[in-house]
Amino acid sequence: MAQTGTLTHAVEEYLEAIHRFASAREGPTTTGLAEHLDVTPASVTGMLKRLADLGLIAYQRYGRIRLTPAGDRLAHAIVRRHRLAERLLADVLEVPLDQVHDEACRLEHALSPDVAGRIADKLGDPELCPHGHPIDAQADDRTMSLLDAPKSRALVVVRLENESPEVVRYLADQKLLPKARLKVRAREPVGGGVVVEVDGERHTIGRELAATIRVTRPRRTSRT
Amino acid sequence: MAQTGTLTHAVEEYLEAIHRFASAREGPTTTGLAEHLDVTPASVTGMLKRLADLGLIAYQRYGRIRLTPAGDRLAHAIVRRHRLAERLLADVLEVPLDQVHDEACRLEHALSPDVAGRIADKLGDPELCPHGHPIDAQADDRTMSLLDAPKSRALVVVRLENESPEVVRYLADQKLLPKARLKVRAREPVGGGVVVEVDGERHTIGRELAATIRVTRPRRTSRT
DNA sequence: GTAGAATTTTAGGCGAGGCTAAGATTGACG
DNA sequence: CGTCAATCTTAGCCTCGCCTAAAATTCTAC
Ligand SMILES: [Mn+2]
Ligand SMILES: [Mn+2]
Ligand SMILES: [Mn+2]
Ligand SMILES: [Mn+2]
User: Which residues in chain A are closer than 8 Å to B119, comparing Cβ atoms?
Assistant: First the structure.
């Protein structure tokens, strides 16, 4: 059983990745993790064994990958540090949004619980990271994927599941960052994209990308 | 020849340590580095070889350890990130001074040049770390060790060469942090300490500790 | 149900960076 | 100058985390 302070960066990175897949309701797979972490599937298998030995995941060969309660607790702590780091970078240091994720992904391993707490204090216990992910409790999720969203209804972007620099930069150009208001105008048939209207303009978002954008009907309270 | 982004944390940590010894006019030694880094002398020898292969230090068995120009440039960059991190922790996040060094010692490896630059911007290009070490150029050093300081003259603490939590906490208690004004009142004979008067009170500082406190005659401009 | 494709795991290997124990070198001192 | 303690290096070993190539398993389609 692993102790909080004793995890290597690699172990933390795997826990974080597994947690992300699970949160996105996507079963973590060997290949998926390999792509996400930019290592080979063989390396993932090796680490999965080690994580299982540490009691952080439940797993047997060729089987499902799931965090144990202990692994989940640790993963949450890591993701929390990541998101607090993102807020510090974005709000205090004014790092451009598309770089924020990658920078935080290194910082998260260097933040002590104490410093993380001080960041939260300093920023007034923010609820969301700059991409719209909750920093603390996962709460119940009333969002839907942009891919599944109904046509012609007012919608708000809640969060971006894909935080890579290219995606964030692209969506920033389209004004599709969290809090952006939009409507789905059309859906192109057979594998085509989603036509959205945002800020008076229409763009087409490809299926794969649309699937990673979570939206909701606007909350009455959020109309500033 | 090593590239900036390609250094491992361990290599960075050794460069930093070697740089610290050199800055403190103390020749870096295998044993000294081993103690500082909390590894065995044998491990240090192994790493020294690797650093020599990388062209970062000039060194041959049983010989002097010196940074090459390339190693020195990298070491400076690392130490600069360390001290900027310290200022961020101390000034923005209000981390207690005695913890600041250790936290920064992990953060320094996770800061990109871009983020380091933004910290410097945000803080208005600070000149000193919270322990009194210069963040950029080393400039000429007019300080002396408290151990060598003349009796009965007004002195100011410039910096603490030893930034460990115990030392910083102890000196904070004695009000001997940078900018503190003091006078040497006496020197105990044979290995004894230095009796200083600070803030109206007298304390005795042991030889070893006194040697790590750098002081100077007060600059006329610094009398606020 | 089975062939072929996709996925996953094993086997074997490597470099980084530690360790211990043992040997080499240096240097201090009588 | 020689001896002995301190310092430093070598030798041999270990774990972590990655790799490639090959084998095993599962999934998909017919
Ligand atoms: Mn990460
Ligand atoms: Mn985020
Ligand atoms: Mn460090
Ligand atoms: Mn400092």
Answer: 93
**Domains of chain A and CATH, by start:** 1-135 (1.10.10.10), 144-216 (2.30.30.90)
Contacts of B10 in chain A (CB under 8 A): none
Q: What is the 3-state secondary structure (H, E, C) of chain A?
A: CCCHHHCCHHHHHHHHHHHHHHHCCCCCCHHHHHHHHCCCHHHHHHHHHHHHHCCCEECCCCCCCEECHHHHHHHHHHHHHHHHHHHHHHHHCCCCHHHHHHHHHHHHHHCCHHHHHHHHHHCCCCCECCCCCECCCCCCCCCEEHHHCCECCCEEEEEECCCCHHHHHHHHHCCCCCCCEEEEEEECCCCCCEEEEECCEEEEECHHHHHCEEEECCCHHHCC
Q: How close B10 gets to chain A, by Cα (Å)?
A: 13
**Residues with a beta carbon under 5 angstroms from ion ligand 1:** A 13, 105
A113 interfacial to chain B (CB closer than 8 Å) = no
Closest in B95, B110, B115 to A115, CB measured: B95
Model pTM? 0.88
pLDDT digits (tens, 9 = 90+) for B88-130: 999 999 999 999 999 999 999 999 999 999 999 999 999 999 9
